[in-house]
Write a structure and sequence with these properties.
about 475 residues, alpha/beta, Aldehyde Dehydrogenase, Chain A, domain 1, Aldehyde Dehydrogenase, Chain A, domain 2, 7-stranded mixed β-sheet, 6-stranded mixed β-sheet, 16 helices, about 20% strand, binds nicotinamide-adenine-dinucleotide, binds (2Z,4E)-2-hydroxy-6-oxohexa-2,4-dienoic acid
Amino acid sequence: MTGLYRHFINGEFVESEERFPKYSPLNNAHIADICEASKADVDAAVKAAKAAMKGPWGRMTVEQRVAKLYAVADEITRRFDEFVAAEMQDTGQTKHVMEHVFIPRGAANFKIFADVIKNVPTETFEMATPDGRGAINSAIRIPKGVIAVVCPWNAPFLLMTWKVGPALACGNAVVVKPSEETPATATLLAEVMRDVGIPDGVYNVVHGLGPNSTGEFLTSHKDVDAITFTGETQTGAAIMAAAAKGIRDVSFELGGKNAGIVFADCDFDKAIEGITRSAFLNTGQVCLGTERVYVERPIFDRFVAALKDKAEAFVPGNPALDSTTYGPLISKEHQSKVLSYYQKAADEGATIVTGGGVPDMPAELASGAWVQPTIWTDLPETASVVQDEIFGPCCHIRPFDTEEEVIELANATDYGLSTTIWTNDIGRAHRVAGSVEVGITWVNSWFLRDLRTPFGGSKRSGIGREGGVHSLEFYTELRNVCIKL
Ligand SMILES: NC(=O)c1ccc[n+]([C@@H]2O[C@H](COP(=O)([O-])OP(=O)(O)OC[C@H]3O[C@@H](n4cnc5c(N)ncnc54)[C@H](O)[C@@H]3O)[C@@H](O)[C@H]2O)c1
Ligand SMILES: O=C/C=C/C=C(\O)C(=O)O
């Protein structure tokens, strides 16, 4: 996948003059150039998508669309190793996480929404009328039209297909703007779309940056009917302002500062396992990840010691090796941001339980975006690393004494994406789950996904829910047809 990443517009790969470099997270080597879509390129992509809605795609039956989406999923599965390699090259994350989490979810994201759209009923109301003949109201689902899909870099293929799957299932056409850090799998998916016969213009990809670049050109384009975005809360605010012009609908999955809550009656080993994953999977670059851990006082010391052991057991290195369990951050820029928080934690008086710096790496990887898994204790809740989303492999652990106290601590944030609660008291699990202000709560688990369930954030972590029938709310419009009999 080295070389040049091109746009995919109206069924063809096209280049543009402006380019920017892609560096490997593993060693900062220059591994590719990426075309940067101009206003004219974006306009061509939006025009192609709009035209596709009036072409064969717009005329397909649901059954025909569903068959196409299954073909997309099957082709992703057939080219599985290429997707694994492409995303591994962009993110530096381990082959294991690619093979077991991110790439299979790409295929699953097409199948689930093909199944949903095939089985969803429409609503009908019969009504009486003064002439005694009555009328029937029937709501039919209409695709919204051209959907802009703006994606982040942390789980590029999973997050992009989580939007493209339902958008296409509902009969829309999409223009995807992948993150500037992760062009590979969106581009590879274009080949899949072409090869399985998705009509030209239904799936378009425009590469580029955000502000004053492709992302802004796309989200402010007047012929985009709706915008689905996953990324930082501040970017969401900028996109919302762009969407206000023309009154376009938005679906946002934004940042988080998620709390893990561990009660003393939990299954200790499972809780350690779970919090290890939620804090450090994907080098902490998971929106659902845990950066604040609250542990009931009787098991606090034991918990901190056990999590320290887990953090120190990660093996950073070449992601293609089975022995590697830990990757770099996405970029040197993100490394600087995370390291600045490591410094702030030290300045603000944290006890550094483990980490806090850069791991020793062999010469060929020494220039990569590596940081150590890091655990802090003893900070006040006002400390920067307890307040801000860092998006790195780090967490602060604090003891608590009562259920009421921990609920208050968990809720003391503007974010509200997810939480993970560890206890064997089912009543307490249910009470606490009902009180933590988030969109997604896991009890005795984390990131256990049933794709039929509503997924999204509360407070500043998002707008709307995607997943199962909930995605239909965003990707279609209901048109009520009232037939007087
Ligand atoms: N809630 C969720 O489900 C979820 C999932 C994954 C990631 N995230 C969040 O994503 C963030 C990490 O991703 P990121 O750093 O790529 O996010 P980001 O907001 O910096 O960028 C996301 C995308 O938006 C584009 N963009 C940036 N500015 C833009 C603008 N003004 N107009 C239009 N497009 C613009 C970027 O080019 C990129 O494609 C974290 O905050 C994380 O919590 C949330
Ligand atoms: O990093 C964020 C991971 C988000 C996961 C999903 O959006 C999902 O599982 O659907």
